[in-house]
Design goal:
- With 171 residues, this protein is an alpha/beta fold.
- Helix content is 20%, strand content 26%.
- The chain is built from four helices and nine strands.
- The chain has a four-stranded antiparallel sheet, with no helix packed on it.
- A hairpin with a 3-residue loop joins β3 and β4.
- The protein is elongated, with a radius of gyration of 19 Å.
- The protein starts with 5 loop residues before the first strand and ends with a helix.
Length: 171
């Protein structure tokens, strides 16, 4: 396989032919004999519902300003650990879903509603009933917790360095 080259062309990312791209969002890929052009999009974003900084409408405004054809919201799904400060509170889930879904059809940008869902064995994952019932357009799976300390608290590997280091030493 030849080395992949990326070019910029009128706001699109072009990837040299021969690279397999998978995209389940119909109509987002444009082809010519030499390059595959993929419009600039974002399907991994966090809002103020979790560790993001702004409300969803602000992100949609930025997507419109950048001529994105599609934008996906994927705030961190609620997790079962009160110590986790970056995930959405379970009580805010319905408001998040309603707000994201209310943005669909309000502009030329296709809006998709998702969650970044932690896989925690025997506890939660992308196929959990409450996730399936949310009616998401797609899901992002992640692993932020990999084990437990002796006191039962989760070892978060994508959090504060001191917690990661403690897990390396104690678990």
């Amino acid at each position: 396989m030849t080395k992949t080259q990326t070019i910029s062309h009128q706001g699109f990312l072009g990837v040299q032919r021969g690279v397999v791209l998978s995209n389940s969002f119909e109509g987002l890929l444009y082809r010519n004999p030499y390059f595959v052009f993929m419009p600039w999009t974002n399907f991994h974003s966090h809002t103020h519902y979790c560790d993001g900084t702004n409300p969803p409408k602000d992100y949609l405004g930025a997507a419109i300003a950048q001529n994105m054809p599609a934008y996906g919201y994927s705030s961190h799904a609620p997790v079962p650990y009160a110590s986790c400060k970056w995930a959405m509170n379970r009580e805010r889930l319905d408001a998040y879903l309603a707000e994201i879904n209310s943005l669909k059809g309000t502009s030329e940008v296709q809006v998709y509603c998702s969650l970044e869902i932690d896989y925690v064995p025997e506890i939660m994952g992308p196929s959990s009933d409450w996730i399936v019932d949310a009616g998401l357009d797609y899901t992002l799976a992640s692993v932020h917790f990999v084990d437990f300390f002796e006191d039962g608290s989760p070892w978060e590997i994508d959090g504060p360095k001191q917690v990661f280091d403690a897990g390396l030493q104690q678990i």
